[in-house]
Amino acid sequence: MENRYVLAERSERVLVLRLNRPKQLNALNTELMSELVSALEEADRDPEVGSVVITGDERAFAAGADIREMAEASPAEMLLRNNLALWDRIQGIGKPIIAAVSGYALGGGCELAMACDMIVASETASFGQPEIDIGVMPGAGGTQRLTRAIGKARAMEMVLTGRPITAREALELGLVNRVVPREVYLEEAAALAREIASKPPIAVRLAKQSVRRALDTTIDTGLEFERRAFYMLFSTEDQKEGMRAFVEKRRPEWKGR
Ligand code: HXC
Question: Which residue's CA is the nearest one to ligand 1's atom 10?
Answer without folding.
Answer: 64
